[in-house]
């Protein structure tokens, strides 16, 4: 059987060379690694027989992932070597190497000769090895010296890269991303690898969209080179095929003559009908083949996977396929790592992780600080997850060489990823940059991706005239101009191990060490309080959603999705802010978000989730929380109604002091008319009796390539086969067959990394098992004291590789996920209130700056002179209106309360106090018609002791304009004021 497989591969291999002028090979297999430095390792004849064989992607310090704190991840020099051959038919062809990325810097040698250096540790790059490579029976040796020092400095400038940071950029060293080898003719379409090759590749985009009609004009353009000795008369042909491989349309551009040695760009365009538009949760992708033909014969063919979608960024909102979408999702560390693996996971596992965000109704992932690797970008294409693609940054703006380094990263990343439809935002830095720098970034986007429908901006940028989006890290921003969305909200931490105050091991909020003297309650939560806090935080953004006025919030993303081996404040040496843990087991806050985010703006499907479990000790009384989209929720214990919950924060229903009884706790949601719209229940589980093993479902076979992984789940179950939610049993694993144990993770010594015995947490845990290069049967067995054992058989399929080349690409066989269906044609929001424009204002002091309180600029404000008698401002409206609400953003909004009196044409409509918020506070007024609205400070404002939020470095996070009024007495400061009447 193996001989037949090899013969089939060899015939296909030869056929490709004789009939096609473009072939791309998986170049990940048959590498060897040595940790340490040896200058002779670059030589072709060096003896590497004793080196460790590996399959890429492979970080040589992967054992550290989640075992060590980020600052302690192992660094140093490692050498990678690969022996490979090319058939004689490759002689005279163009041969390129493509690296998706390394960490940090690498020196590359082919057959003992230097071929290049790459140092930024982020972007893809490549080399033209056509004149150095051997063909036929002669062997080639590629040697790479990798330095992943935290202190690595760019050689030409002696400058450290800004993103070599021990807070956020986990250091998984070596060739930690995929590698490819390309063979093309001497008349060819270039690769999108600018820094090392100076080329830009293929660009596919669409315009003239008719979303309802399902049509658009598709454009393709390719940078081409003629390295033959003759002029070439070229026809550029484009063929579009759908996700099922069916032809959609073929069209051609004008004929072009290209002189020897010349480079040019050729293009073609055509209207195309019956299109499926890429959308949230609808990762519909087309294959666009661009072909160079000479005398009617194809001499170079490039296939580009892409999708088509229409975007707009206007009126403070984001439009996808003509429908407004409020972003809700996650700010995820770009490393996106796993225990004992780091980031170098197989493509199916990237789809699994990113797909969980979509399953949880997230629609956007903001990769933090640095550009994600191509595998994650392509994964988001397939699962239908919008993404924000970073350049490279730590914090703040930068100048000189480090700014030029950042520009180079965004340029290379745009060129490399411009055909990926899931990229909606380009991010110029992790925090605000100058207007001049923003203009430079925008010019780069306009040069290399002028038609991709992507906004370019940065965090902050609240008053920018150049940026196309912005938004603070934690707080609510609104705009009537560019979209503003929160980029890292809900930074609290809480481990999956801890349910609540009443469940062993009884972790209360704040238990554990303090970080820089901060209140530990915000970073040492349990799952219950973490989920409740997620509801409170999201509601503040959603409360200012599209439909609520002229100025709106475009949403926000929660930090982070999965636990991360980056900076932390809790008792562990990794960050526990995730909605899933490091092995992607769901936590309670995952389900809370899933309920609230079930729609483009407003929830479009009613649902609920009862936070927690129902296995307590006799006598326990506790508050029960239900997250629901319903108008009211009823709770029952064993069928007996306990009434309706107290609704708060838009989606949270609280039932106070509920006494536990074995059996069933159920919740039923009703709409405003009393109609049942959703329900859910939790039952008491029995005592643990057995173990259960499950291989997490995957869409592609388990491949014996030495890098593929299976994710295996172990559960402690009762006699009915139901998971025991409070079980903490220690599980003992055994593994037999052609596989490598990578294990799992739990709270404990070294986080149990690589341990064969580790505990479940809340009745469940997972482990990773890596294939070897030998196919076959793999047996996994688990035992635990007092429980019935379990076993599982895995089968790894053969992986065909010949002389270091493989035809099967890393993402082969992974499907597009289309679960949510195409973009709905219905509106995504309704108008809830009508804004009344302010035309002018007078004030007790500083009237000349009163306009700053309604100028749609959250970096400006009106403030009086600190005297109580001058603490008033009066707004004149565009027309007489029945004022029903006043929404204010006040300085020090997070910690300060302002006692106010509001009048309409002199008649009092409100007397009371604001409360600390994440930005905006809406005051419900007694409806009164008039044209002048006066807001006055009734008495000295006070500090309410609200959470002022402190970063891990101890810095207080901004909660208003630069001036701090936290100690002020008679000061009234209004950043933005909005006046509303009820919707008709």
TrEMBL record:
Pfam families registered for this protein in UniProt: DUF4982 (PF16355), Glyco_hydro2_C5 (PF18565), Glyco_hydro_2 (PF00703), Glyco_hydro_2_C (PF02836), Glyco_hydro_2_N2 (PF22666)
- SUPFAM superfamilies the UniProt entry points to: (Trans)glycosidases, beta-Galactosidase/glucuronidase domain, Galactose-binding domain-like
Q: Give the keywords, sorted.
A: Glycosidase, Hydrolase, Signal
InterPro entries reported for this sequence: Beta-gal/glucu_dom_sf (IPR036156), Beta-mannosidase-like_N2 (IPR054593), DUF4982 (IPR032311), Galactose-bd-like_sf (IPR008979), GH (IPR017853), GH2_Domain-Containing (IPR051913), Glyco_hydro2_dom5 (IPR040605), Glyco_hydro_2_cat (IPR006103)
Give the DUF4982 domain ranges: 619-678
Q: Which GO terms describe its molecular function?
A: hydrolase activity, hydrolyzing O-glycosyl compounds
Q: Which residues form the Glycoside hydrolase family 2 catalytic domain?
A: 312-450
Top-rank taxon: Bacteria
Ranges where the Glycoside hydrolase family 2 immunoglobulin-like beta-sandwich domain occurs: 211-309
Question: Residues of the signal sequence?
Answer: 1-20
Which positions fall inside the Beta-mannosidase-like galactose-binding domain? 78-164
Q: What is the similarity comment for this entry?
A: Belongs to the glycosyl hydrolase 2 family.
Q: Which PANTHER family match?
A: BETA-GALACTOSIDASE (PTHR42732), BETA-MANNOSIDASE (PTHR42732:SF1)
Tell me what this protein is called.
Glycoside hydrolase family 2 sugar binding protein
Starting at the broadest rank, the lineage of the source organism is: Bacteria, Pseudomonadati, Bacteroidota, Chitinophagia, Chitinophagales
């Amino acid at each position: 059987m193996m001989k037949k497989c090899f013969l089939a591969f060899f015939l296909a291999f030869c056929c490709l060379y004789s009939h096609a002028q473009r072939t791309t090979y998986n170049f990940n297999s048959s590498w060897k690694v040595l940790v340490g430095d040896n200058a002779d390792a670059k030589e072709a004849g060096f003896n590497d027989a004793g080196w460790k064989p590996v399959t890429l992607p492979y970080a040589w310090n992967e054992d550290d992932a989640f075992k060590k704190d980020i600052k302690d991840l192992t660094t140093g020099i490692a050498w990678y070597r690969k022996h490979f051959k090319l058939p004689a038919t490759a002689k005279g062809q163009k041969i390129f190497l493509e690296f998706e990325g390394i960490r940090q810097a690498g020196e590359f040698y082919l057959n003992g000769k230097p071929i290049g250096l790459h140092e930024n540790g982020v972007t893809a790059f490549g080399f033209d090895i056509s004149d150095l490579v051997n063909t036929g029976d002669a062997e080639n040796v590629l040697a790479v010296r990798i330095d992943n020092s935290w202190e690595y400095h760019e050689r030409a400038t002696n400058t450290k890269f800004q993103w070599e940071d021990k807070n956020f950029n986990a250091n998984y060293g070596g060739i930690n991303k995929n590698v490819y080898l390309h063979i093309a003719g001497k008349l060819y379409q270039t690769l999108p690898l600018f820094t090392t090759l100076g080329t830009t590749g293929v660009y596919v985009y669409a315009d003239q969209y008719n979303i309802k009609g399902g049509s658009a004009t598709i454009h393709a353009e390719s940078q081409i080179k003629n390295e033959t000795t003759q002029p070439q008369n070229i026809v550029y042909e484009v063929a579009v095929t759908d996700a099922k491989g069916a032809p959609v349309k073929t069209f051609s551009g004008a004929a072009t003559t290209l002189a020897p040695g010349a480079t040019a760009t050729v293009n073609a365009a055509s209207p195309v009908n019956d299109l499926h538009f890429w959308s949230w949760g609808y990762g519909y992708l087309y294959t666009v083949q661009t072909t160079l033909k000479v005398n009617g014969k194809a001499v170079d063919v490039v296939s580009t996977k892409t999708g088509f979608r229409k975007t707009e960024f206007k009126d403070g909102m984001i439009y996808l396929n003509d429908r407004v979408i409020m972003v809700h999702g996650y700010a995820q560390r770009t490393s996106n790592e796993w225990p004992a693996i780091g980031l170098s996971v197989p493509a199916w596992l990237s789809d699994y992780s990113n797909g969980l965000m979509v399953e949880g109704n997230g629609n956007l992932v903001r990769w933090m600080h640095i550009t994600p690797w191509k595998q994650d970008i392509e994964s988001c294409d397939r699962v239908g997850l919008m993404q924000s693609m970073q350049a490279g940054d730590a914090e703040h703006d930068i100048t000189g060489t480090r700014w030029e380094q950042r520009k180079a990263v965004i340029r290379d990343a745009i060129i490399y990823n411009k055909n990926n439809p899931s990229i909606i935002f380009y991010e110029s830095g992790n925090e605000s940059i100058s207007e001049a720098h923003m203009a430079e970034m925008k010019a780069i986007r306009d040069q290399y991706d002028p038609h991709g429908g992507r906004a370019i901006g940065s965090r902050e940028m609240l008053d920018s005239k150049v940026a196309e989006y912005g938004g603070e890290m934690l707080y609510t921003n609104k705009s009537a101009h560019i979209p503003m969305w929160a980029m890292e909200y809900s930074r609290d931490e809480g481990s999956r191990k801890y349910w609540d105050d009443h469940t062993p091991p009884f972790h209360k909020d704040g238990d554990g060490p303090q970080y820089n003297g901060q209140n530990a309650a915000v970073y040492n939560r349990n799952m219950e309080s973490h989920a409740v806090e997620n509801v409170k935080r999201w509601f503040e953004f959603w409360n200012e959603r599209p439909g609520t006025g002229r100025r709106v919030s475009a949403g926000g993303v929660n930090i982070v999705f999965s636990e991360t081996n980056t900076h932390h404040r809790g008792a562990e040496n990794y960050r526990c802010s995730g909605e899933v843990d490091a092995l992607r087991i769901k936590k309670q806050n995952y389900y809370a978000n899933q309920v609230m985010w079930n729609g483009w703006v407003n929830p479009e499907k009613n649902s609920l989730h009862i936070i927690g479990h129902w296995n307590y000790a006799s006598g326990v009384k506790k508050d029960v929380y239900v997250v629901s989209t319903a108008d009211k929720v009823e709770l029952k214990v064993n069928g007996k109604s306990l009434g309706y919950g107290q609704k708060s924060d838009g989606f949270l229903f609280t039932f106070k002091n509920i006494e536990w009884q074995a059996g069933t706790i159920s919740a039923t949601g009703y709409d405003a008319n009393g109609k049942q719209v959703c329900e859910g229940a939790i039952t008491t589980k029995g005592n643990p009796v057995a173990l259960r093993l499950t291989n997490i479902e995957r869409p592609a076979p388990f491949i014996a390539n030495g890098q593929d992984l299976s994710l295996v789940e172990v559960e402690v179950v009762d006699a009915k086969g139901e998971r025991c939610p409070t079980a903490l049993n220690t599980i003992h694993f055994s593994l037999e067959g052609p596989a490598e144990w990578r294990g799992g993770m739990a709270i404990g010594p070294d986080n149990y990394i690589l341990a064969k015995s580790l505990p479940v947490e809340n009745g469940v845990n997972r482990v990773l098992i890596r294939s070897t290069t030998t196919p076959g049967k793999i047996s996994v067995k688990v035992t635990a004291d007092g429980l019935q054992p379990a076993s599982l058989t895995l089968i790894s399929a053969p992986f065909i590789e010949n002389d270091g080349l493989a035809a099967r690409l890393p993402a082969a066989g992974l499907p597009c996920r289309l679960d949510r269906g195409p973009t709905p044609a219905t509106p995504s929001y309704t108008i809830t209130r009508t804004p009344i424009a302010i035309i002018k204002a007078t004030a007790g002091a500083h009237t000349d700056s009163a306009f700053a309180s309604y100028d749609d600029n959250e970096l400006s404000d009106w403030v009086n002179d600190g005297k109580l008698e001058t603490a008033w401002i009066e707004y004149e409206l565009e027309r007489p209106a029945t004022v029903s609400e006043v929404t204010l953003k006040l300085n020090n909004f997070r910690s300060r309360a302002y006692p106010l009196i509001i009048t309409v044409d002199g008649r009092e409509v409100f007397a009371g106090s604001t409360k600390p918020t994440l930005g905006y506070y809406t005051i419900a007024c007694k409806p009164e018609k008039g044209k002048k609205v006066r807001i006055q400070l009734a008495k000295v404002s006070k500090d309410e002791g609200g959470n002022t939020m402190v970063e891990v470095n101890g810095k207080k996070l901004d909660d208003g304009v630069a001036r701090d009024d936290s100690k002020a007495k008679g000061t009234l400061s209004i950043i933005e004021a909005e006046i509303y009447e009820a919707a008709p």
